[in-house]
Specification:
92 residues
């Protein structure tokens, strides 16, 4: 989304230089924003991975009777954890 400026070649050199630098500054600002968005997305992914690991760890530590009260078996733990994570983030 960079603006295109037409500067007359006969314009003073300083005017042409300022227009060029303005365009470069906009390009750099757009790049910085894109990098920040990418980093935030990666950080969110890391946080979600840690949350999933903690949830799985907690569920694995439950006794079979506790799992049964949740309506799941040990083999259901990964799918159940994913459902909990999905439902939790859908509520946000």
């Amino acid at each position: 989304m960079t603006a295109s400026y037409h500067i007359d070649a006969s314009a003073p050199r300083t005017v042409r230089l300022k227009a060029f630098l303005h365009g470069q500054a906009q390009a750099v600002a757009s790049l910085i924003v894109a990098c920040a968005v990418w980093l935030i997305a990666k950080a969110v992914g890391v946080v979600q991975a840690f949350q999933m690991a903690r949830l799985l760890s907690t569920l694995v530590e439950l006794r079979d009777d506790q799992l049964k009260s949740l309506g799941i078996t040990r083999s259901d733990i990964p799918q159940y954890a994913l459902k909990l994570m999905t439902d939790d983030h859908a509520a946000d």
